[in-house]
Amino acid sequence: MRVVVQRVLECSVHIEGALKAHIGHGLLVYIGISHGDAVEDLEWLCGKLIRLRVFPDDRGVMNKDVIEAGGSIMLVSQFTLHASTRKGNRPSYMQAARPEEAIPMYLRAKQLLSERLGKPVQSGEFGADMKVGSINDGPVTIVIDSVLRE
């Protein structure tokens, strides 16, 4: 499982021209689920996201997590995070989980994050053609991989 996390001032997801979800300041989390990702990986990753100290404290030091900062989370599925460009110029997505495996994990991630955050997590729609708009704050962008535990 791989995520790209961005600290944002705001972000929104539109599907077919209609607003699907919006948050103010918080975390925009793109999540890619691969073959063989386990619930343990998901639980570790959700814990890491909730505890990730990327929000400034009173001195301007990134020392607060999303809860302490009063932020929200937007979760967006993105199978392209598992693209391989090793061979040729057309990315291969063979490492990305098929929808029947990925959808339950995506929904469980949304549930776990909501429980740990203490409020609903906003999200895109799995498999939809989404238009994601965001204002990256900092910018702060971090990649986390559950297999590498980094």
Chain-wise SSE layout:
Layout: E1 2-15, E2 18-23, E3 26-32, H1 39-51, E4 55-56, E5 62-64, E6 72-77, H2 99-117, E7 122-123, E8 130-145
Parallel strand pairs: 3-6, 6-7
Antiparallel strand pairs: 1-2, 1-3, 1-8, 4-5
Helix pairs in contact: 1-2
Percent of residues in helices comes to: 10-25%
Q: Rg, please?
A: 15 Å
CATH fold annotation: D-tyrosyl-trna(Tyr) Deacylase, Chain: A
Strand content: 35-45%
Can you count the beta strands?
A: 8
Measure the end-to-end span. 11 Å
Helix count, per DSSP? 2
The main β sheet shows up as:
6 strands, mixed
Number of domains: 1
- Would you identify the regions where 5 or more consecutive residues have pLDDT less than 50? none
Instruction: Look at the structure and name the CATH superfamily.
Output: D-tyrosyl-tRNA(Tyr) deacylase
What does this structure look like?
With 150 residues, the protein is an alpha/beta fold. It has one domain: D-tyrosyl-tRNA(Tyr) deacylase (D-tyrosyl-trna(Tyr) Deacylase, Chain: A), CATH 3.50.80.10. Helices cover 21% and strands 37% of the residues. It is built from two helices and eight strands, in the order βββαβββαββ. The strands form two sheets. Strands 1, 2, 3, 6, 7 and 8 form a six-stranded mixed β-sheet that branches. β1 and β2 form a beta hairpin. The longest helix is centred in the last third of the chain and has 19 residues. It is globular, with a radius of gyration of 15 Å.
